[in-house]
Structures
1.
Amino acid sequence: MGSLHIQLYLEITMQFANEDHHLVSIMETLQPLQLGDFGVPETFWVDDALLVEPVDYIATLDDFQNPTEKLLCIRDTVSMIVKAVERHFQNQAGPPPSLSTDELLPLFIYVIIKSHPLHLYSNFFYMRAFQLSDLTRHSDMA
């Protein structure tokens, strides 16, 4: 799908350039905000140093060449965030608090914003429009 991906993705990014640019503008204004500003409870205020890996990884979303690879990038980024939270609590006494979607979603949004994505809208359109397989049967998604 190499050259087809390049041509198709280029067309999509050109078609949605305004939407991508609008999201970039919004995310630039959100850059100075901290985890607490996104509604992350103070208990889960993970040091930014622990989030470097997921931020750097999701920043490569444009590099993946098909919808499944892009979705796997998102899944792996979420896993990296969970591991960062686990490392945050590893030296504390007692069991760590449970991480639910109430904490995970704002952490994920924070990571996306910090990654400076240039084609977020285009990527989501591409994944939604061209995902041809049932992901529940994809071995990497299990």
2.
Amino acid sequence: MSRGRPRRWRSIRVTSFYIPDEFEPVFEKLREMAASEGVPLNQKILDAIYQYVSLYSSGGDLPNPPEPMRFVKESEKVEAEMVAADLQEVVKEVKDPRLNESYRIGLVREVLPKLLKRLATLNSKLQNPNFTKLCRDALSLYKEVSFKCGK
């Protein structure tokens, strides 16, 4: 005899799930909304699951599978802005013919790749088209200068 759930229960039960720290404010807001509406929290979660499935199931108008949900911390947005500003400055200096050639090559070999990698990593979550363009421009410049230098 099976020790599982009695057959009269025809629903699936989820008793716990992981909520990342950065998602906690959203979950707390959901909890507050459910309480203010007098609706159980689990019903709000079931409603969200139902809406998600109806929107993204095959045959719908939206792409299947959908883009993954991205949770971006405010600190990551700020860091991306700062890295982008630094990267723009480096690109500007590398293109400036008035500056010492060895200095510009040093920027391309040492500084530009680190900034480019960090901005690309942050932008994988942010999906900012301006950052994407900056990364492409910086990568092209890196390839161009590296080719000229024989690296």
3.
Amino acid sequence: MSRGVPWPIGLLALPIWFCPHGAHRHLLGSRDGTLGRSRRGSLQRDCGRRRRKPEWRVDGGTRNAVAHGDAVTGAGVDVEDAAVRLPSSRRVTRRRGTLTFLRDVAVIIVVAVLVAFLVKTFIVRSFYIPSGSMETTLMVKDRILVDELTPRINDYERGDIIVFRDPGGWLGVTGLDTGINPFLRAGDWVLSLIGSSSSDSGDHLVKRIIGLPGDHVVCCNELDQLTVNGTAIDETSYINVPRGEPASRVPFDVVVPADSLWVLGDNRDRSKDSRLNQDQPGRGFVPIENVVGRAFTITWPLNRFGLLDSHDDVFVSLLGP
């Protein structure tokens, strides 16, 4: 028979595998290779105590793990009191996190509104088209973007589509509509500050530049075409008139004064433009200071999204004044 550990000793050694906290020390402490009843009881108590999970207590403002059966010393608070205090501290932390989040959101909104206001005031602005005077280039209810910055750096050119404030009398009497809900009016005003609404589109007009300061513009020659500085221009690529009709049914012969523009709508028969306002104080001319900017793109509806054509090729052959 091979030598080995007697089987009773082997059975008694099984707790070693279930108590990894140093219970083997009890076996090594037995001189005769056996365990007494008292040692087995000590072993069981040791394993039972070490296998319990620690609980938390608050002592002096800090959290310390205390095992079952260990003595609590000092001026600390017992485990039950900690269970009351810890959730309270978590609520305070959560409240501070919420306030920080709301503060960050408020800062982001304020910065976004400020940036949008600056962009709308100095760079680009949105307008909607309320009439058909520029059909088919612009349709009713189209939304357009107007470049306010570039024209301040470079001069306007013939063919540019511009948005301008009424020089006086072009739109007739436009009083304040008192039937609009004041809350809706206030909301529309706030949205207009950031460029999301165009509450003043009804106070502006959109037309195409035909004559620059000093230009001599006449309608019409024997081919029913406009002439600018004696050169006929072929507008068939953008004007909306019945086939065989002249470029304008209203004749005119003007010289554009300094700091002013002569403008016409692409839908000539439905546009109240410079031709039909010659009896106004401005004699049909638009002061350049009234111009908001140059329209460069349609943003809505999506099926009409795209850049606007100034038709430079039509005016490229014109001589200066």
